[in-house]
Amino acid sequence: MSGAPFGARLTESVAARGSLCVGIDPHPGLLDQWGLPRDVSGLERFALTCVEAFAGDISVLKPQSAFFEAYGSRGVAVLERVIADARSAGALVLLDVKRGDIGSTMAAYAQAYLSDGSPLAADAVTVSPYLGFGSLDPAIEEAARTGRGLFVLARTSNPEGAGVQHARVDGVGGASGVTVAQSIVDQAAAHNAGATPLGSIGLVVGATVGRADLDLSALNGPLLAPGLGAQGAGPADLAAVFGDALPAVLPASARDVLRHGPDVAALRSAALRVRDELAAAAR
Amino acid sequence: MSGAPFGARLTESVAARGSLCVGIDPHPGLLDQWGLPRDVSGLERFALTCVEAFAGDISVLKPQSAFFEAYGSRGVAVLERVIADARSAGALVLLDVKRGDIGSTMAAYAQAYLSDGSPLAADAVTVSPYLGFGSLDPAIEEAARTGRGLFVLARTSNPEGAGVQHARVDGVGGASGVTVAQSIVDQAAAHNAGATPLGSIGLVVGATVGRADLDLSALNGPLLAPGLGAQGAGPADLAAVFGDALPAVLPASARDVLRHGPDVAALRSAALRVRDELAAAAR
């Protein structure tokens, strides 16, 4: 690792390469579209093509672990190669695993994904706080120690997410308090307080979530915003949702870029086009 | 697969082998205690020793995926062998992965862990509902199709879990409604309604959680209760926590049994002793 905290490395990368995060989602339907077999060889071809197309120009690549795990340990071995190759080419890798557990088990996930020398170590990972934000402490500590980052699920755009994320944490004297999602924001903000240029504890917030939902003003950390393109949000919508937090937002796109494959040049120019649209909309 | 639903297979197994679930947790500290190296060879030796000791007599074995993922794809390959060997010896395998995502990503996790022919397919897996209970539908459907089961995180015993699990889902007219944990129970119960002898959608509920917390009376599904032994609950406490639901409870123990290794006979007799204590306490 470079030694610098993730928030600093991310800020530097976004300044140089723009804010777009491209998802590497080897969905079976996309393998079909690219004329690849639905097996480990197709998975590997797909994922390494993505690395070749994006890793030299795009700030953050986000492989979705589920699509690799679907092929068992051999799929996970492909994921290891994707992480290593993308990082060698200068991209930051945000591995989308949404892990969450307690105590020594959470520490084992931190070992797997955030420790120097682990074959699956990325620059940052997504984590899930159903067991409480505090259950993530072993990962927060390891990330701080190794200059890596976390993106904690806060408020997602799928409609059924509201059943948990909009529930109200009991306030003082049994009064109705903030939502679960806001309490996640607040706890991440407490960890990021005082960090410059940006803290290393990010959040996942859907790009189509209403702005009134959450107060992100004190976060001082990065926001991963899935849902650009295929899920309905355009670059202009991002400003409406995220407002002043927009400079720290990583809009994520997968399907809308990946449908241009398997041609490497076509994939790259599709990603660069989205990246430049985002830059123009943010001006 | 046998073709029978998971709830029926579990009921049959518990009748024959008792209700104990033994966790296979290759924690680094346990590898040290067993005189094994902290590497893939130590992991494999540890996990296959557990299979040899428990799979012929114990109803449910629960490997904790995090401890395998910590060694990357080679660790995941060991996990594949553990699952296959344990199932061949007649145990049910509940793989503790706590996955949770939406749409095609959740479907990919279902493919990985619940589909016939996948190298990581277990009899059941744990899942996390932070993205809403409804986000688990692709896994619920695949489990139903292949005779497998799910254990959805509901209420865990770690103190920081309350920040999410005790939040209140808005009721009618903005009134304060049930807790998030209870809403998970209610949605699982709806899926299990009418199943005999037992539905296939289980829950994870801590063995040290107070009984007043949750109404489990309509669940009609299995409960995984981690926290037996090392985490403080004894067999008698289970009756106090789970009451009438006790017949469907799988008390899970790991550290308290595993500390008797690496001797296979000592491990086996430790597990059988806990199993028999549980049976005596339930009478």
Account of the protein in words:
Two copies of one chain form a homodimer. By secondary structure, chain A is α/β, with parallel strands linked by helices. In chain A, 44% of the residues lie in helices and 17% in strands. Chain A has twelve helices and ten strands. In chain A, the strands form two sheets. In chain A, strands 1-2-3-4-5-8-9-10 form an eight-stranded parallel barrel, surrounded by seven helices. Chain A has a two-stranded antiparallel ribbon with strand order 6-7. In chain A, helix 3 runs parallel beside helix 5, helix 3 crosses helix 12 and helix 6 packs parallel to helix 7. The longest helix of chain A is centred in the last third of the chain and has 19 residues. The model of chain A has no long low-confidence stretch (mean pLDDT 93). Chains A, B: This is Orotidine 5'-phosphate decarboxylase. Chains A, B: Pfam families: OMPdecase.
